[in-house]
Design brief:
Elements lengths: L11 E8 L9 H4 L1 H6 L9 E11 L2 E4 L1 H12 L2 E6 L6 E8 L2 E15 L10 E11 L8
Antiparallel strand pairs: 1-2, 2-3, 4-5, 5-6, 6-7
Length: about 150
């Protein structure tokens, strides 16, 4: 799918706030890692709320999310970032490598579907976007994805 094209008023830097509301480990707690398990204890507290920078840039005549910057900003606030690879000419693929419990963990995100919308009567101040993605997590660089 093509990238999300944001309204012109999105261009620039923003402060974002995210709140952790659940920690699930569908493949089991051992794979989730100690840090993820510790985060369960923060649910419902101020420690579950993170504030970080986001940036939206002009690219080929459209305003798009600077995904590499935004992921770096979010992950830096929680620690463990090693690298982020993203190219705005291929908005459907992003790779992040984190240090989790002393091991480099590579995560590849592949966007499979996007939707955008502006509610009627809110054209000047509201914009909705959603993305569906496949997340493939591997261990260190030499291991196969799980």
């Amino acid at each position: 799918p093509s990238d999300v094209f944001y309204p012109d008023w999105f261009a620039g830097a923003w402060r974002a706030t995210s709140e952790l509301v659940a920690v699930e480990a569908p493949q089991g707690d051992a794979i989730a890692g100690q840090r993820a398990l510790k985060l369960r204890g923060t649910l419902g507290t101020s420690a579950a709320i993170e504030k970080y920078a986001q940036r939206y840039i002009n690219y080929r005549g459209h305003v798009i999310a600077d995904r590499a910057y935004n992921v770096r900003s979010l992950v830096r606030s929680s620690g463990g970032l090693e690298s982020v690879d993203w190219d705005p000419s291929n908005p459907n693929s992003l790779t992040v490598t984190l240090k989790r419990d002393g091991t480099s963990v590579r995560t590849q995100l592949k966007i499979t579907k996007r939707a955008t919308g502006i509610p009627q009567g809110r054209e000047g101040d509201l914009f909705n976007a959603s993305e569906f993605y496949q997340e493939v997590v591997g261990g260190d660089y030499g291991s196969a994805p799980r």
